[in-house]
């Protein structure tokens, strides 16, 4: 029995001290082929330091062996020694039989560094040199999938599946294809592939994509079942709760929607979008005070989120808490407002507070974008009537009547003018 085989047996048996001795004897006495095999086995078992020792010993003896250069580069990458890895890879010439493999390793390295363009270039070069290699097609597909370039990924996954390759490196290609279709909004195609995967083989992300696909296809019963299945298997998957709640809302099951989003709050109290959705559903359930609490919490977590800010402002205006709205928005915008809807809310609030000049300024700010909004036009008409500016009042009133010609009260104002 070789020292290499003895070392592996001892390692498997947990005899670490004996393994270390046998490893040293293998280095001294075993053939180069045995040592190379030992290095591969040790690397697969996670003992990369020992693999590196062997490869370095062999590299000193065979400095022109490109396979050893690539193996040492991979070990250097694992050890976060990127410059060292690139040095090894740069020594592999384009004429080498190992050049394509070196391109693949380099692509992985550049991708981990966030240098995606260079990584893609390496993979495309490898594909050009070996167009029939499935492993390269797969690597390129995975690159596009990881970088969210799903359309390109789809073409590659489809080609692999068509050729009969359904799995590579423990990755289910049918699953990848289904998720990719879902991510670009082609939900019919996504469902066709995702439904082929047995539930026992689905991870949480794939379960979410299937539920999300049902949701977007308006198959809300199926979506609820799928989201609930994901919740039962992984309750910490917080992204599911807003969609589960929305699925209930679309089936007019508002109380169940509120319960679902409250579950989401208990799971992720720092996700402002869950608080936002909770506030919106609480309003649907006529739980106005609860809605306010949820909007305020969402705004507290994400004060720069314009959606939540607008919902909170709308709540204050709808409940005629104009001073609270002024406190909210004056602190955000200070000297100027950049959102027409919020300018409208400010105009109403300043109008109620008797600050006509500030109200007029905000009506003007909102006018360009809200010139087709009947509620805005009606409020602006009445405001300018109130402060005695009939010319401006007339402009807004005419626009309003063009949109709502059967409003007898406002028609009477027009006749009076």
UniProtKB/TrEMBL annotation:
Pfam families: TPR_19. Signal peptide: none annotated. Keywords: TPR repeat. It comes from the Bacteria. TPR repeats lie at residues 204-237, 238-271, 272-305. The keyword tRNA processing does not apply. This is Peptide-binding protein.
